Structure formats: C-alpha cells, structure tokens
Amino acid sequence: MSAVDLQMACVGGLLGLAVLAIVLSRSKAATAVIYGATLAVSAIALIGSMRSLLGDPANVTVLALPVGLPWIGAHFRLDALASFFLIVVNLGGAAASLYGLGYGHHEATPHRVLPFFPAFLAGMNLVVLADDAFSYLLCWEFMSLASWALVMAHHREAGNAKAGYIYLVMASFGTLALLLAFGLLAGPAGDYGFAGIRAAPHTPHAAALVLILMLLGAGSKAGLVPLHVWLPLAHPAAPSHVSALMSGVMTKVAIYGFIRVVFDLLGQPAWWASVVVLFLGGITAVMGILYAMMEKDLKRLLAYSTIENVGIIFASLGLALAFQANGLKLLAALAFTAALFHVLNHSFFKSLLFFGAGAVLTATGERDMDKLGGLIHRMPLTSFVFLVACVAISALPPFNGFVSEWLIFQAVLQSPELPQWALKIMVPAVGALLALAVALAAACFVKAYGVAFLGRPRSVAAETAGEVDRYSLAAMFILSALCLLAGILPGLVIDALAPITTEILGGRMPIQANEAWLSIAPIAESRSSYNGLLVMVFITISASLAVYFIHRFASRALRRGPAWGCGFSDPTPAAQYSGGSFAQPIRRVFGTLVFHARDHVEMPPPGDIRPARLRIELHDLIWEGMYAPIAGAIGISSDRLNRLQFLTIRQYLSLVFATLVSLLLVLAIWS
Amino acid sequence: MVVISDILVQGVQMLLVLLLAPLLTGFVRKIKARLVRRKGASVFQPYRDLLRLLRKGVVLADNASWLFRVTPYVTFAAIWVAAALVPTFATGLLFNWTADLIAIVALLGSARFFLALAGMDVGTSFGGIGSSREVMIAALAEPAMLLIVFCMALVAGSTQLSTVANFMASSYVGLRVSLGMAVIALIMVALAENARIPVDNPATHLELTMVHEAMVLEYSGRHLAMIEFGAFLKLLLYISLIACVFLPWKIAVSGTGPLAYAIGAAAYVIKLAVAGFFLALFETATAKMRVFRVPQFLGAALMLGLLGTLLLFVSRSF
Cβ–Cβ of B60/A561 closer than 8 Å? Predict the structure, then answer.
C-alpha cells in the first residue's frame, strides 16, 4: 500500500464515519463513537504523513480514481509539501477529536455537529491531496460547505445566521476566484491535471492574473485583509473544537493552496509579485492584531489573532518569492522554511487557545471577557496551558512562536542582497510592521489572559466555574508540550522541512543537526544563531538558583492581606481593569487613525445622581467603506430588478428576443 | 582546560553583572542628588535596600495566584540570562552564540510579559493601569528596536553581539551618520524600556503617574527585591549593549589572557560610570512627559532607525 493509498483510505474512513454519524445521530453513544473513531483515523493518517515526510520524502506517490469528470478522472498525489500539510491537518484533527470526546458531551444538538466533523476533516485532507484542478475545486467546495454546516450548528444563537450567510457569500466568491485562476492556468489547451499545468509555459500577464486571483481566492479563505470580514464572525460561531480546526488548520489549507499554485504550478514568478504579497501580509498582520486588541469576546479575539498570524505567514512567503525571483535560493529557503514553521506553530497554539476558550465556555457559559476573571484559581490546569499558548503566540522564548518569528526576522535582515530598490526599502518597513504586530500580539494576549483568567471574578458564573474534563485537558496538554518541544528543538523541525524547500524552491537551509548543542544557525553561526534549549535551561537554572538562595537566606514569612487601594479599597470587581480599559492606551495611539475611535464621556452636572458614562465609538472602516456600499448597491439593484418578476408573457418574450439579438451582435463584432 | 576557563569567564561575567547592577543604580541616584545639590544616599544604598527587602516578610493580596508568586523569579531569571549574554568586558564568551540580539530583546519581552500579567493578577486598578501602559510602550519600542538591529546588522553583517562588537572595534568602521542615528534611537528605546525620565519616573510617589511602579505596586518583601534587582540588571544590560556595540573600546577578545580581561573589565566599569553620569545629567535636565506623548517620542526613535537604514542603502559610506 503506497503512502497516498493510505491517506485516501483514511479519507474514505472519515467519509464513512460521516455517514455512520447520520445513522447514529440520535443514539447516546454517538459522540464517543464518532470522536473516538475520528481520533483513530486521524492518528493513522498523521503517522502515515509523518512517515512520508520524514522517511522518504523524495518518493512521490500518485493515485488516479475513475470518478469525477469522465475524461479527466480524479488524481491525487502525495509529495513532501502535501505530506507536511497533511501532518498539520491530521494533528489538528486528532487533537480536536480528543478534545471533542469530552467537549462533545456538552453539545445540545450533537446531530448537527457529528456528521459534519469527520466530513470537514476529510475535505481538508482531500484538498491537500488533490492533483487536478477539478478535484481540487470540488474538494475545496466540500470543505467549505462542511465547515459552513458546522458554523451553522447553533444557528438559533444570535448572530450565527448572519455569520453563516457572510461566510457562504465569501466562500463562493473565493471559489469563483479559484475557478478563474485554474481556468487561466489550464490555458486554451485545457489540461486540468497539475502535472500538465506545471509543464505548460505561462505568459507574464496570465501569471500576474493568476497570482491576484489566488490572493483573492486562497486569501479570502485564509483571512487576508480586506477579505477577512467573514472570519471573525464564522470561526467563533462554530463549536470550540471546530473553531480550533477552522482557525488552526483550515486557514493553513488555504495557504497550502496559495503555495501550491504560486510556488509550484506557476513556475518562476516576477519580482514585483513579492511586493504585493509582502505588503498585504504586513498590513494583514498589523490590522488583525489591532482588531483583536479592541475585541472583548474571547473567541473573536482569537479569530482576529489568526488573521494576524496569516499576515505573518504571507509576509514570509512574500520574502521567499522575492529571494526566489532573484535566484537567491538559500535565502528563499530560509524565508519559506520560516513560513512553514509558523504554519506548524500557529496550528499548535491556536488550536490550544480555542480549546482553552472552549473550556472556559463550558465552565462558565461566557465568551465575553468582561464577565470572566479569576479563573486561575478555579481552573488551574486550563489556566496553565492557556498561559503556555499565550506565551507561545506572543513570540516569547523559549517557546515555538519565537523561533519562527526569529527566522522571519533573519530573512528580513538579508534584504540588502536583493537588487531591486523597491524591495530593499520595502522589506525593512515590512519587518518593522511585523515587529509591531508581534509586540501588539504580546499586549493582546496579556489582555486576554489578564482579563479572563486573572483578577477577581466579574460574574457569578466565573466565580463558580470548575475544571473541565480529562479528555479536553489531555488534548490541551499534548498541544502545549508540542509548543515547548518545537521551541527548544527547532533544528529538528527545520531539517524535517528541508525536503519541501528542495522540492519547491530547489534550495535548502544548512543542515541544523550538525550545529553544536542543538542550536540553529540559518546562514552561519557568526551571523546569527539561537539555541532554545540552552535558553530554557539557563532560565530554569537561574530561576532555581534565585529561588534557592532566597528561600535559604531570606525571610520566609508570608501573610495574606487585602490588596492596597490607596486607602480606598474598591468594593466591586467591576472597578477592575476590563478588556476595554486595558486596550485604552493602544486605542488612543492607533485607534484614532485605524478605527476612527472616539471616547464620549457623559458627565452629569454636580448634584445629579445619574452615573457618569463612558461610551467608546469604533468604526470598522473596511466594512463601512468596502462591504457596506457593495451590499447596498446589490440591495438597490435587486429592488429595481424585482420588477422583472411581474411582466406579461409578451414582455418576457421580447426580453428573450433582445438578449438573443445583443448576444449575436457581440459575436458578430468580436469575430 | 580551554572549556573550563571559558566557563570561568562566563561565570565571572554573570557574577559581575549581578554585583555591579545595584552599584550602577546607586551611582546614578547619587549623581542625580548631587546635581540638585542634595547630599544623597550612599552609592551602596541599593544593596542595603535589597537586603532590607529580603529580611522582610511578604504581604500577599488575598486573591493573588501562583502566577503572582512565580513572576518575580521568572522575570529576574530572564533578565539575568539576557544580561549574561551581552558582552560586557569580553567578547566571544562561551554562551554568546546561544542568543543573538533579537533573542535577547525577546527575553526581556518575556520578563515584561510576566510582569504585566502579575500587574493584572490582584485585580486592582493600579496594576491594570500600569500593565496597560507598559504594554503600549513596549508595542512602540519593539519596532524601533528591530530597525536599530537592522541598521546595525547592515553595517556589521551580523546580529550576533560578539561579532558586532568585534567588527565595531576594528579600525575600518569610522564615523557614520546612520550609526549616529541608530545610537540616538537606541538610547531613546533604552530610556523607555528602563522606565526612566522622560518616559516614566522611577522615583515618583504618586501612583497615577507611574507606569512600571504602578504595575508592581502589590509586591513586597523578597518578591519586590527580585523585581527591583531585575530592574537594576536591565539598566546595566542596556548600557552594556550600547557600550559593546557603539563603544567597544578596549573590549577583550576571548582567549587573550587574564591581563586583557582585566583591562576590559576596567574599561567596562569606566564606561558604566560615564553612561551613568550622562543618564543622571539627562534625567535632571528634562521633565517627564505625559503618557500620551510617549508615542511621539518612540515614533521619533522608529523614524531615526528607518532613516539610518535607508541612508545605509543609499550609500555604503554613510
């Protein structure tokens, strides 16, 4: 059984489970059976894909199935790039299934979730495996629709129906762009197999158009600004383990699509393509995290932070494009490896964060951070893993988020090698944008953790919360261990990614296993090196030394007392800093420009006993400036066109005649 | 044998920064006092303060969590490791290649992350105001810092501090406009990161005007001692950083023998004294700015970094 056969068998298994879930839907055991079986199948697929990436990555296996269009069939192929993304998909799938074993029991309507969960996983696997345009688009749509059904699982909750509708519209728009892109790629000859597309030459104009269409199609699914509007609505609306899959994994599948087409199928891109990708990536990173900073709904904050991370990945891919276009293979490999490393890291910690948000939701029933607080006392284990994820996503050593960001900055620092002036000047500016995004991410996660888990409880629900079940905790602990491992042993990950850069770019980073003490050095040790393991060991040793000396020689007395309130201890937890107040300094610095933020203070005159009120006015300029006018125009034109429904048969016939004549005229003029 | 001496030198450096850090702060305070014609406390007062804090018991707020108690040690450890990795009197120490400048800045970021969380832990408004302003300042300082690193790496071809220091110590660097801009930007970032005037006032007694001190208001006893010690170390670290990159005068290269090390150490102490003097002079001569003027201050640092980088592109000789 070849590697691709195994993967397809797993996909078949997942689809079978979806059918089984429909059959079992009303039974009590369904949750345990379906999630348990999904966990098993995902684990097998995970091991299979790891074997093909780590074992013999040069061995590309293909499979053709006699389904689909009769003269094309359906082609599937497993190479190093696909193996890597299958690892991301199936690791996320396995973790989400494990989490679902516990979390699923709190589901009020399991029959709305269970059938679509394995189907969604199967869809994501298929997109990565597809090797012709037709199967690719079909699987892409399947994935979108399955996830849409999961978003609509709780369709009676306020806002979810709107979220599902916007998601559906944006997903259709994205698929339309992909359809046009593949049409252009296939060219007039119409070879829809990826092998044929790869071999065919592409004119510069067609290549440019394909790049833009891919940015629209894959970018809208991944959440590139300004196509991100559906993401913060749809991702949080789904059950939390599905949110984790959508944010941690499905955005990565979209990035896979972008890489497959732009890096693999399109051939050598022009250098200016990288300018577009870099610019979009930098803007997306900063905008995403600024939106997240303003958010008070925990799951929506996480969704916005996904947008930020997608921006970082795209900026890194843009760098890779720039280096590749100038033939700097080593540096292109560095930037590309950084992007893939960040893909992996983000799938770890974002899944973990959504699991944590789900655990909070189970324990308190709240997503609004301003109704949480003090959970560190009542959910100690969840708080611990959530803290690990927060540190990792804030790119702080010794966790994994830092390593990939460090690699990206190393790639940014190599920009003087680029011959084009535009790039020379632009790359440092994008680097500064990324640094800003990273620093804001740290601020954002101090806010998320500080408001939700620290402080005093702001509601009865937060005061009476309890720890979640063991399955959920197991899933979260596994992911947090992975965050630490990838952070302290980055060399292993970089070496495992080398076959992909060799396959896609024809170059690779130096072998990191040769470096002493497991450190990593992207180009040469004298230029830059980092050793996560040693940093971690040093911090542990020096912290232990400090603790030892303090407890050996200093006073050990400890007394509990009320917090210091400058002589006036505030009586209510509402007086603590909330999410909105924590964001206030950053809102004043960036928000006045980006969100047209205004604070309105309503102060009653002296003697009046009404409370003073502070109202914050924020504008989503992208929605108001781009989407609202389009939606308005569509509304107005449909109102006008509505009249066409009430014509007489004679008028209809004359319409048909007029259309026919105009089409013939067009044809006559064209030829 | 070589390894043992390397470990020894590395150990000496770790102890040296630990011993010198309170002295530096005491020296700055003394100079500040003398400049306003006060007598001022002894330069050894910070040591006495630390010992006094260590002897006192801890008063912990009622709902403080384990995070609040762990944070002083984590921040101290992170800052100490970072300070041990910056070349002070010698370059090419055993563990210098563990982290480059970006990683050192990120280590300081870890320390700040935990401190900001601890500020939120007790659930008082003072902690919140301190944390939220601290992260705002950090969010503005980090991009500026990256551009400074960028500018430096363009000149020296590395982000590894030992390599940079060796390169800067070599004769063919000369005076460059862009490096001048970078050093001004770095000083501005260092002032902000260390909560010094004009960004923050380490000596104020009004909670509302403080940033860093408001964040750690709930700490007492040995916990406060660790945090104070961390702050002393951080000041020493930034001065060492500026000194090793822009003033690598007499810095010893690894393996050149005890005499070179001794000269390097003496030069290092002189550099610290000079920097401390100028810091005190600057702090006495300026007033603290309003918190929402800080973005303009750090924005200027960012622009200086960017200008320095662009100048390097325009001409290699700048």
Answer: yes
> Is residue A250 domain-resident?
no
Shared-domain flag, residues A383 and A518: yes
The per-residue pLDDT for range A467-498, each reduced to its tens digit, is: 999 999 999 999 999 999 999 999 999 999 99
User: Which of B66, B107, B133 lies at the smallest CB-CB distance from A585?
Assistant: B133
Q: Are residues A472 and A598 in the same domain?
A: no
Number of Cβ within 10 Å of residue A503's Cβ equals 17
Contacts of A416 in chain B (CB under 8 A): 154, 313
CB-CB contact of B286 with B198 (8 Å): yes
Q: Is residue A408 part of a domain?
A: yes
Q: Is the preceding peptide bond at A398 cis, omega within 30 degrees of 0?
A: yes
Same domain, A637 and A595: no
Q: Is it true that the peptide bond before A226 is cis, omega within 30 degrees of 0?
A: yes
Domain assignment present for A28: yes
- Work out how many CB contacts closer than 8 A connect A with B: 269
Q: Residue A442 domain-assigned?
A: yes
Assess whether A180 and A282 both reside in one domain.
no
How close B188 gets to chain A, by Cα (Å)? 17
Helices B294-314/B125-156 angle, 10° precision: 10
Q: How far apart are CA A452 and CA A444, in angstroms?
A: 12
Q: What is the number of other CB atoms lying within 10 angstroms of the CB of residue A615?
A: 9
CA distance B56 to B222: 7
Instruction: Report which DSSP code applies to B57.
Output: P
Number of domains in chain A: 4
Q: Which domain, by its residues, includes A608?
A: 579-617
Asked if residue A506 and residue A595 are part of one domain, the reply reads: no
Same domain? A48 vs A19: yes
- Closest Cα partner for A584 from A418, A451, A403, A399? A451
Buried b (16+ CB within 10 A) or exposed e, B232-270: bbbbbbbbbbbbbbbbbebbbbbeeeeebbeebbebbbe
Put simply, whether A386 touches B (Cβ < 8 Å) is no
Look up residue B2 and give its amino acid.
V
DSSP state of B138: H
318 residues of chain B, pLDDT tens digit each: 677 877 888 888 889 999 999 999 999 999 999 999 999 999 999 999 999 999 999 999 988 999 999 999 999 999 999 998 898 888 877 777 788 899 999 999 999 999 999 999 998 888 899 999 999 999 999 999 989 998 888 888 888 888 888 888 886 676 778 888 999 999 999 999 998 988 888 777 676 677 888 888 899 999 999 999 999 999 999 999 999 888 888 888 877 778 888 898 999 999 999 999 999 999 999 988 888 899 999 999 999 999 988 888 776 554
CA dihedral A146, A148, A150, A151 (to 10 degrees): 170
* Nearest by CB: B217 against A564, A576, A584: A564
Contacts of A564 in chain B (CB under 8 A): 61, 124, 126, 217-218
Claim to verify: residue A43 and residue A182 sit in the same structural domain: yes
Q: Which of residues 403-422 of A touch B (CB under 8 A)?
A: 406, 409-410, 412-413, 416, 421
Q: What torsion, rounded to 10 degrees, do the Cα atoms B124, B128, B131, B132 define?
A: 180
- B78 in contact with A, Cβ within 8 Å: yes
Q: Is A451 on the interface with B (CB under 8 A)?
A: yes
Residue A542: list chain B partners with CB under 8 A.
76-77, 80-81
- Of the candidates A526, A527, A536, the residue with the CA atom closest to the CA atom of residue A490: A536
> Rounded to an integer, what is the distance from CA A526 to the centroid of its chain?
35
Full-model pTM: 0.95
